[in-house]
Recover the amino acids of this structure.
């Protein structure tokens, strides 16, 4: 089994606005860090190599990241201890503070990858039901 994750962010302005220029310019670097990180397996992307045009929520103000990792520890290392932390610490410049859960984790069989819609549904399930073996957060991670 491998760990799937979705995280979303609500943009303060459209993705092509000057406010988001620094964030957009840094996407390739951050994606490369992820792809070269220990435990990285896969990420959802469009034909441009990003996911900024994907819209499983039918809301252009939301950007979506869906990826698969070998373990919770590997994902945490990327999120909190890699070059990704530079973007993480600046997130208030570009994104609204989310009042609801904006990240969800769940286990999937090796070699299977979630669609944007499946990931969206997992996040909605987490919001409605809290942490369960079906979908959970870092705070209450379910082991295999």
């Amino acid at each position: 089994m491998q760990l799937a994750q979705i995280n979303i962010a609500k943009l303060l302005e459209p993705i092509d606005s000057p406010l988001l220029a620094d964030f957009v310019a840094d996407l390739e670097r951050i994606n490369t860090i992820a792809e070269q990180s220990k435990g990285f397996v896969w990420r959802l992307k469009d034909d441009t190599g990003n996911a900024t045009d994907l819209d499983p929520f039918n809301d252009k103000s939301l950007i979506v990241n869906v990826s698969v990792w070998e373990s919770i520890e590997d994902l945490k290392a990327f999120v909190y201890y890699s070059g990704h932390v530079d973007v993480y610490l600046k997130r208030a410049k570009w994104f609204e503070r989310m009042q609801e859960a904006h990240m969800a984790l769940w286990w999937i069989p090796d070699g299977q990858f979630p669609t944007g819609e499946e990931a969206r549904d997992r996040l909605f399930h987490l919001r409605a039901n809290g942490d369960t073996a079906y979908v959970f957060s870092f705070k209450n991670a379910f082991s295999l």
About this structure: The radius of gyration is 14 Å. The chain has four helices and four strands. The first strand starts at residue 2 and ends at 10.
